[in-house]
Amino acid sequence: MTPSFQFEAAVERPLSVVFRSADGAWEGHDYLVEVVSTRQGLDGFDVVMDFRELEIVMDRVLAPFQGRLLSDLGLAGPRELAQKLLLELAPHVPPPARIAEIALTDGRGRRLALRP
């Protein structure tokens, strides 16, 4: 019997956004958006999924957020941004692969991760 392993692989893209902090001050952040995909075993090409396709979709999904004020897009802050990105990216990850995590890391190394 061959053991079946869980594999993960990540793609990263930069994103710059502006939002209001809890005290009402404006904050701009340059994030590195990381999308981790996972699956049991690997496909016929020994990969979790085609990363070029995920990179293309990430670029398309992130473009409307680039340099924008999150409240203008109906988002209160980075947590809601991560949730929105998860909802928009998940349908583009072909089963049996799925998104395991979306993380936003700012320039100071602070990381917010969302796992569905």
Describe the structure in your own words.
There is one protein chain. With 116 residues, the protein is α+β, with helices and mostly antiparallel strands. It has helices spanning 51-62, 78-89, and strands at 6-20, 26-40, 68-69, 98-105, 111-114. It has a five-stranded mixed beta sheet.
Oligomeric state as shown: single chain
Distance between the termini: 31 Å
What spatial order of strands do you see in the largest sheet?
Answer: 3-1-2-4-5
Query: What is the number of helices?
Result: 2
Run of helices and strands: EEHEHEE
What's the Cα radius of gyration?
Answer: 16 Å
Poorly predicted segments: none
Mean pLDDT: 92
Main pleated-sheet profile: 5 strands, mixed
SSE diagram, text form:
Layout: E1 6-20, E2 26-40, H1 51-62, E3 68-69, H2 78-89, E4 98-105, E5 111-114
Parallel strand pairs: 1-3
Antiparallel strand pairs: 1-2, 2-4, 4-5
